[in-house]
Amino acid sequence: MADGHMVYFGERAGVVKYLxxxxxxxxxxxxxxxxxxxxxxxxxxxxxxxNAYTHKTRDDPTGKQIFGKYSRRTxxxxxxxxxxxxxxxxxxxxxxxxxxxxxxxxxxxxFKQNIKISLSKVNISQTIxxxxxxxxxxxxxxxxxxxxxxxxxxxxxxxxxxxxYVLSGxxxxxxxxxxxxxxxxxxxxYRLLSYYLSKQIAELPLVLFxxxxxxxxxxxxxxxxxxxxxxxxxxxxxxxSALTSQSFGYLxxxxxxxxxxxxxxxxxxxxxxxxxxxxYIRHLPTGLTWLNILCARPGELPAGELSMCDTGDVxxxxxxxxxxxxxxxxxxxxxxxxxxxxxGFCIVMRVLAYYSLRKNSRRNKE
Length: 366
Known about the structure:
Blueprint: H1 15-21, H2 32-40, H3 43-59, H4 61-71, H5 75-86, H6 99-118, H7 121-137, H8 148-170, H9 173-186, H10 192-222, H11 228-256, H12 259-275, H13 291-294, H14 300-309, H15 321-327, H16 335-365
Helix pairs in contact: 3-4, 6-10, 7-10, 8-10, 8-11, 8-12, 8-14, 9-16, 10-11, 11-12, 11-14, 11-16, 14-16
């Protein structure tokens, strides 16, 4: 039954064949009950199935007898029957919960699902092992000119490693949720915006936990700069870099909606931006300088270097930190301006990811 109309009547085993005869073939691995619910959630398909069953009943011998009896009724009854049988199915679809209720429930569900993965023993052990390894390599870097590259290497590694880590995790988020999202959206369970925002809110503390767990001990153990203000600035750079990479992962996943292809694209993207980030090469060959525009995280390394190389009261043995900044060509804009660039990319990519997911979810529904 659908809105008081008969859609199918018969053996349970015959419903799949009946739907296939009407042009709606159920995939072998799909639950027929869920498939029927999805069909009936579409008003157009629902009306077609109602009309199909009505015509089937009229053409059946038993159905002809039934309709013959009805035809002998009064004209008023006939008009009522025709109205019921031929009236288009219209129903106002309303959300069963408010936007805030949807957001709250989905955020709680997403957080409970992801916390088991993000804070698993394997991931925590991996972070601790990486932290110990980096501390052993860069333990108490001296403030001397010969160790300038060591400092820059430590800054670069601290931001890039977590950009890789977060990007690889976020790129598969939407492709893996696609089937569940399609079913729940077709049943009008929640708005797409509620789902998308709940994912951002629930994953935010989980994404930042491991980079913070790594950066805090590594910063002080490697002696980057014994100043709390500089420490906070560097921590913000690392965390914002991770969030920006997550934004690109969301965009790739929402646009491609295929795990393998999304991972491939994100890997090429990450390697390209790492090369263009300013650590491996600072002066591109003539004619290739425009590639710097394609570097989606242009402020990441400069922001980290500026926050660390401007040593203030802790000068190098003979070269002040400002000279290093000028030599590296980092004196054009302040470090916080580079952070604004990163933040801009972070926000814009998330907005684009939402509209891409919205477009693809509609296409998948059709």
